[in-house]
Amino acid sequence: TCALPILSTDEVLQKFTKTPTANDKCSYCHKLQKENHWAYRAKANAFVSHAFTYKFLDAVAALEDHFKDERDEAVVWWDLFSINQHIDNDWSIDWLKTTFKSAIQDIGKVVMVMSPWNRPVTFERAWCVFEVYCAIDTDEDFQIALCQKDRDQFMKDFQKQGETAINSMLAEVRAEKSKCRDDTERVKLHDAIQENGMTFDRLNGLLFSRYRDWVVQAVSEVLSQTMDRLGEDHCDTLLVMESLAVIHSQQGDYAKADSLLEACFKTSTAVLGEDHPNTLGIMNNLASNYNRQ
Fold it and tell me: Sheet holding 109-113: strands in order across?
């Protein structure tokens, strides 16, 4: 037990999932079901997308934080517990497009554990990309979960670099470059994505859109925390507010961008003066937002 904090999810699978289920040759969930264990639930409402290289407890912490307001309702489908790890799963492209996709649609939500925030391993893993594709293609909910360590790093990077940090991260997202341990699996997964007319360019665009939705939520939290810590008139607060406005503008939500930028401009003019570089920068972003409309 003392080694658990440093174990990867794959190591937990080998030591704590496979061993107690070896005699019954079943999934860990099936074992809990047979024992009438209180932790077993028949119906999951969140599919966990993750990487086996993650530290297990980091992934758990990310999920706990993500579901903190719905602990009693959240029931996760997590492959290291839900799949029978003692049999070889021989699957086809047709199985991916039908059975697997239908299962995600039935669950209704995919939650991706993302780490590190600026170059998430999950976007490099073909299975994770396919799982997100299934959520998008079936119009189900796609959410992002970060552990506190990655959330803190995101806040530091964003406060230092603004939207540049986000754009740099998005430049790393290329679904067509995702890989598997077994290249045959990668080919099947990529083929399954493209068979119904989906292109990787379009999928990347959809991933960007979903990721930016999360960014708006995360930056809004940074803004709220900065306001609480420094006050509404502080320069750092204005910088975060301006960055959030630029993100809204880039997403086409010009009304929200206008509201935030006008508030920034008014406060910056009062606090710093109308000729201050920060005030002039806000004015420039206001003009750019107007031109985009």
Answer: 76-77, 46-49, 109-113, 141-145
Question: Which among 216, 60, 226, 215 has a CA at the least distance from the CA of 147?
Answer: 60
Q: What is the dihedral of CA 114, 137, 185, 170, to 10 degrees?
A: -40
Say if residue 222's pLDDT is above 80: yes
Is the full-model pTM beyond 0.90?
no
Q: Provide the residue type at 188 as one letter.
A: K
Are 282 and 264 in contact, with CB atoms under 8 Å apart?
yes
- Give the pLDDT confidence score for residue 1 in this predicted structure: 46
In whole angstroms, what is the distance from residue 88 CA to residue 73 CA?
A: 32
CA dist 132 and 210 (Å) reads 10
Q: Which two tokens stand for residue 210?
A: 């979903």
Of the candidates 65, 69, 81, 124, the one whose C-alpha atom is nearest the C-alpha of residue 132 is: 124
Pairing of strands 46-49, 76-77: parallel
State the number of CA atoms in the 13 A half-sphere of 148 facing the CB. 5
